[in-house]
Backbone:
């Protein structure tokens, strides 16, 4: 694939080393340039007081209105608890074959499950989730190859079982070597 730029827009604090590692992984996986931009948004607009969570559809729509020059994909990164009406929670979503996706770190930390925090594992999970959502924006649907990053699964156990890479079928589908 030739020139394409993926923009990762951060909402809230993410450490620089963390973002650098994400950027390198995304760039390697999709053979493209990655730019990272900080942004702000009023998450209060997406808050559902009944569920005490944030509406992912509204967040996705808000990110979709953000134009990052020269970028073909725009992915919003956050660490708030996202939901869509039919699910208890989601860790990310994206437009299939579109421009925009979102991913949240909120449910990916060990401490959510009463386990010892592990930053390396948290980063690994978040990278997998981001690559998964970007895969959707390139038109990839869920894959049944067990370790493919496009395999479905919203739970950390599912995520830990897959690689951070696309399988060769998925790569071929979107024109990667
Ligand atoms: Zn998916
Ligand atoms: Zn696959």
Residues:
């Amino acid at each position: 694939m030739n020139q394409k730029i993926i923009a990762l827009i951060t909402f809230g604090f993410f450490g620089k080393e963390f973002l650098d590692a994400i950027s390198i992984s995304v760039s390697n996986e999709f053979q493209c340039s990655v730019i990272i931009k900080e942004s702000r948004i009023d998450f209060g607009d997406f808050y559902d007081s009944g569920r005490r969570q944030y509406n992912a559809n509204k967040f996705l729509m808000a990110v979709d209105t953000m134009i990052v020059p020269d970028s073909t994909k725009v992915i919003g990164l956050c660490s708030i608890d996202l939901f869509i009406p039919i699910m208890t929670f989601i860790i990310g979503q994206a437009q299939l074959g579109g421009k925009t996706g979102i991913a949240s770190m909120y449910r990916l930390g060990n401490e959510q499950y009463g386990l010892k925090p592990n930053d390396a594992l948290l980063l690994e999970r978040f990278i997998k989730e981001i690559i998964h959502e970007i895969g959707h924006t390139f038109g990839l649907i869920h894959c049944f190859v067990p370790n493919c990053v496009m395999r479905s699964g919203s739970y950390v156990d599912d995520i830990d079982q897959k690689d951070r890479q696309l399988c060769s079928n998925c790569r071929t589908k979107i024109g990667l070597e």
